[in-house]
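Hi, here's the filled form for the chain we discussed.

Project: internal
Contact: R.S.
Residues: 222
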Amino acid sequence: MNKEEYFLKSKTSKCQTLRCPITNYCTRRALTIYFYADFKYLNYYNSEITTLIKEGIIPEDFEEKAIPLQSPVNIWKKSNIHIYYQHMCPEVNLFESEFSLPFAIDTASTDGEWDDYRNTNKFKNIYYGHFSECAEYNYYIFHNRKQKSTGQRKRSLISKSLRFEIFQRDNYTCQYCGRTPQDGAKLSLDHKIAYSDGGKDTYENLITACMDCNMGKGNKVI
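And the returned structure, exactly as it came back:
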């Protein structure tokens, strides 16, 4: 699979981006680079990630923001005459020529082997991959959707005209203690059913309250 075919798959798979959106913080991509480019010969503190951070290959805040490696794990076997790899990031060979395997450059190969003993076809591709199939990408999409579905509602601004109507309806009087601005009360709007409990910014659910009562009430229904 070349770049043109890769981008076409991104479109037909209805991905929002042509390339993987988690590239800089994907653990699978980081380990793929580590193996392909033989960074194990540096290996600071016996840590793949630390080595790549120190070499400036991945961001310094990688460990804080990383998308963790999901199953299946990267498989890498290398000798002087034979290389076998499996479950690697498809974008390293395809887009990152400085780190890609020389025999698989410009392809989205994730699984393959090189055997120097073969007279012809020394490189054998086993599988071409795409980021939409990647476990880390799907982990990222799932958790993003989950956060959005469980996140707080975006609060709307109460218009000045609605605020005026509520104050006028309630005669500029706190509906809890009865104080007015003439008594030194600072008026605000409160929700009968708290916003955190699903209450809306509507004429029926809003009442006039002084700041003291509003803050003391919290999200209790009175």
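Let me know if anything looks off before we file it.
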